[in-house]
Amino acid sequence: MASGAYPVGYRFHPTDLELVAYYLHNRVAMVDQFRSSPILDCPDFYGKNEPWLIWDMFRAQSNNMKEEETLYFFTHRKKLNPKAKKFDRKVGSGTWSAQYSKNVVAADDSVVGIKREFRYEGGSDPHQNGAWLMQEYEITSHNDLVLCTLRKNPRKLPPQLLLLLRIRATLLLATKGR
């Protein structure tokens, strides 16, 4: 969420436990009556829009958040088919490729949820592959509604910079061969 929505020095930076035990739990319990300004609704996240289009669309609603900030939102997962246990994680022309998952544990060592990490892959724009990261939080007793985060991958360089680095490396190799 944009830092402009908070007093100077404050940031929205919740822990995994806070995201699951407070925000997601209250949203599941209270349905649409629970609203939280830092966490938006994106009912069709797993749909036809590319991650960068979702980012741009919700960035405007979040007081034009900065490039390095994280977007938080509630969404519903879609099953591959009505009887399937697996979920469809297609987004736009690509898909969310799973990286890892871990339990979200409360102070009493009880598991309250699951956090999964994903990377965008296989889209129509090769420059966007790996450029987007998503985290999905699920309550262990309720797996349809999830809380997700979306952010740009800080390790993924812009295509223009990659091209310049490749040209430079090629020139260096060419001059060494003389």
What's the arrangement of secondary structure elements?
Blueprint: H1 16-30, E1 39-41, H2 51-61, E2 71-76, E3 78-79, E4 87-88, E5 90-91, E6 94-105, E7 111-121, E8 132-139, E9 142-152, H3 159-176
Which features characterize this protein?
178 residues; Metal Binding Protein, Guanine Nucleotide Exchange Factor, Chain A; two-stranded antiparallel sheet; 3 helices; 32% strand
Q: In a nutshell, what does this entry contain?
A:
Helix content is 25%, strand content 32%.
Can you describe this structure?
The longest helix has 18 residues, at 159-176. The chain has helices at 16-30, 51-61, 159-176, and strands at 39-41, 71-76, 78-79, 87-88, 90-91, 94-105, 111-121, 132-139, 142-152. It has three helices and nine strands. The mean pLDDT is 83. The radius of gyration is 19 Å and the shape is globular.
The structure class reads alpha+beta
Report the β-strand fraction as a percent range: 25-35%
Under CATH, the topology is which? Metal Binding Protein, Guanine Nucleotide Exchange Factor, Chain A
The biggest beta sheet is recorded as: 7 strands, mixed
What is the H/E string? HEHEEEEEEEEH
Total count of strands = 9
What spatial order of strands do you see in the largest sheet? 1-2-9-8-7-6-5
Shape: globular
Number of H/I helices:
3
CATH class reads Mainly Beta
Question: What's the Cα radius of gyration?
Answer: 19 Å
The CATH architecture comes to: Beta Complex
Domains counted in the coordinates: how many? 1
Portion of residues within helices: 10-25%
Q: Which blocks of ≥5 consecutive residues have pLDDT under 50?
A: none
Terminal Cα separation, in Å? 53 Å
Determine the mean pLDDT. Answer: 83
Give the name of the CATH superfamily: NAC domain
